[in-house]
Write a structure and sequence with these properties.
Subcellular location: Secreted
Helix content: 10-25%
Main location: secreted
Strand order of the largest sheet: 1-2-3-4-10
InterPro entries: Cystatin_dom (IPR000010), Cystatin_Fetuin_B (IPR025764), Cystatin_sf (IPR046350), Kininogen_Fetuin_HRG (IPR050735), Prot_inh_fetuin_CS (IPR001363)
Protein name: Fetuin-B
Shape: flat
CATH topology of the largest domain: Nuclear Transport Factor 2, Chain: A
Structural class: alpha+beta
Keywords: Disulfide bond, Glycoprotein, Repeat, Secreted, Signal
Number of helices: 6
Length: 399
């Protein structure tokens, strides 16, 4: 019987080791919450808001549905969410700073759709949300889908063609003449363009404008108006059209004018990272007091890539194949030399992190290859679109 004593002690020691808690700082196992869970929907909303706020060019993206979500509870506090979001672009330019829920999605014939991968840290108790990384790949709907639903609808065309710049200039002349602005504006860039035959060739353009140094009180004939410096100039977003007939020309224009796009203050950045339910709380607390991670949250890193139009059947999930693989959890921009203009004039936006600096913060894993294990994912579509619906599959392929 005596020989049983050391055996029992050995078994007890093994059990004690097996039951020991994981080492401090070790990453928790990834969970698969439901795609229709309230916390997941809020995480998707916050991620998309911060993606749109981080971009300087292009159009605000709207949530089509939550495709997949994995959750990583943090040892100290909060959770990191790994999201795959199906998105469509809207009629709002990112310079408008509007929330995606307040923007109208585009009509079927000009829809651009795709997916965004996002990693976001959220701490509801401390009123903190921080987008760590994101990467979005978008694609215009293949023309043959548009023709099957609306054969007479204008298809989006390259905005760099001279006829569209000319249409923008003609539309802007009407705005400069009729608006109550104190200065004239000039065309900054054409962002979307299409053409359709109506009673003659009709050109439809969306473009950015910038305030110039020429006052509307002065005569500007044969005078070149220099744009005001970007830190003081107002920027506008316009939608215009020029319809030509044999006897007459019809020009339309509507513009939104935005205040100078100065850098965000620290207070504005903090407010943007706050969860909506508690944005009015903890206003007196500093960031370091609100959350032990907040001083060490790295700058958001991400990009948006828009593929050229294609006649191929492109599903939401085949778009994922065009996103470069990465093993360190950081997005890898599309291979290009310098900024590459996209389909709507947007350029890839890449902020390289400082990989040499050691910081303490939330444990961020590489984006998980395994999708959500919940049978509620992908979630329900926020809208039913006759063109987009055939392009999505019921269950996604493996990342």
């Amino acid at each position: 019987m005596v020989w049983l004593v050391p055996v029992l002690f050995g078994i007890q020691a093994l059990c004690s080791c097996a039951a020991a808690p994981p080492a401090r700082g070790a990453a928790a196992a990834l969970l698969s919450p439901r795609c229709d869970d309230t916390a997941v929907e809020e995480a998707a909303d916050l991620a998309l808001r911060q993606i749109n706020a981080d971009r300087a060019e292009g159009y605000i993206l709207s949530l089509y549905r939550i495709s997949s979500v994995r959750e990583q509870p943090q040892e100290i506090t909060g959770s990191v969410f790994y999201l795959i979001l199906d998105v469509v672009d809207t009629e709002c330019h990112v310079l408008s700073k509007k929330l995606w829920k307040n923007c109208n999605t585009r009509p079927a014939h000009s829809t651009v759709y795709g997916q965004c991968k996002a990693i976001i840290y959220i701490n509801q108790e401390r009123n903190i949300s921080h987008l760590n990384t994101y990467e979005c790949t978008l694609q215009p709907v293949p023309p043959r889908y548009i023709w099957s639903v609306c054969p007479d609808c204008p298809a989006d065309d390259s905005p760099t063609k001279p006829e569209y710049l000319d249409a923008a200039v003609q539309s802007l002349a009407k705005f400069n003449k009729e608006s109550e602005q104190t200065h004239y504006f000039s065309v900054l860039s054409v962002t979307r363009a299409s053409m359709q035959w109506v009673i003659g060739p009709a050109y439809f353009v969306e473009f950015l404008i910038q305030e110039t140094s020429c006052s509307k009180k002065d005569t500007v004939a044969d005078v070149k108006c220099e744009p005001l410096p970007s830190e003081v100039a107002q920027i506008g977003f316009c939608k215009g059209s020029v319809v030509n007939s044999r006897t007459e020309k019809f020009v339309t224009i509507s513009c939104e004018i935005y205040s100078p796009q100065g850098p965000a203050t620290e207070e504005e950045k903090q407010e943007a990272n706050q969860t909506p339910e508690k944005s009015s709380q903890n206003q007196q607390a500093s960031h370091s007091e609100a959350d032990p991670f907040s001083p060490h949250l790295e700058k958001t890193v991400g990009w948006v890539k828009i593929l050229p139009p294609s006649d191929e059947d492109i599903s939401f999930y085949s778009l994922r194949e065009s996103q470069n693989e990465h093993k360190d959890g950081k997005p890898v921009p599309p291979k290009a030399v310098g900024p590459t203009p996209s389909f709507d004039g947007e350029k890839t936006q890449v902020n390289k992190p400082d990989l040499t600096k050691t910081v303490t913060g939330p444990v961020i894993l590489p984006f998980p290859e395994e999708l959500s294990l919940s049978d509620s994912c992908p979630g329900e579509a926020k809208q039913m679109d006759g063109i987009l619906h055939p392009l999505i599959t019921r269950k996604p392929a493996t990342v």
